Amino acid sequence: MKLCYILIPKHEENQLEKFFEACPADKYFYDVISSTQDERQNFHQLFDSLNQSDELICYDINHICLNGEELIALLQQCQKKHISFTVSADNVHCKAKDLELFIFALTSLRTLERNYHLKRQKEGVQQAAELGIFAGRPKIDLQKHMKIYEQWKRGEISAVNAAKAMNLSRATFYRRMSEFEELLEKNSR
């Protein structure tokens, strides 16, 4: 039996018929996901319906799982149940050993893609740093808040009030004060 599953983003819901036409099957399952909801009841129903020697069809890799790990787990389940897997848009059809190779290729590509992404991200951060662009929470200028620090050290104001005056959380306030005191100690030597 040919079973088709399509995971469809909310903004593509009006194209559902197009996906069904591209994936001729005996039975169709689909779930619509959005940024706030990714519950997939029909995905789990599909797996209850799959039997040995069935064929699972999807429109394309992006329309079956939420991420790479989930896809690999799905393909491994298909392999255990001797279910063939077809990606309609890419014209990929896998059975048994081919499925193992497909899983290996997908994991290799995912690892390669992740490594390239991390490398590009690191290069981008370095370029931004060279241009003086800083991402993340800016460091506070403790010299600017020296008066508040001194009041806190003398016990004139509480840590909570000092943190509020510096626009910091209490945990960040204590962390920054500890760093500041270490810096003061180094400079006094």
Low-confidence spans: none
Give the class from helix and strand content and strand pairing. Answer: alpha/beta
From the alpha-carbon coordinates, what is the Rg to the nearest angstrom?
28 Å
Strand order in the sheet with the most strands: 2-1-3-4-5
SS element count, helices? 7
Distance between the termini: 80 Å
Biggest beta sheet summary? 5 strands, mixed
Helix content: 40-55%
β-sheet strand percentage: 5-15%
Mean pLDDT over the full residue set: 81
Oligomer: single chain
Count of DSSP strands:
5
The arrangement of helices and strands along the chain is EHEHEHEEHHHH
CATH architecture of the largest domain: 3-Layer(aba) Sandwich
Query: What is the number of domains?
Result: 2
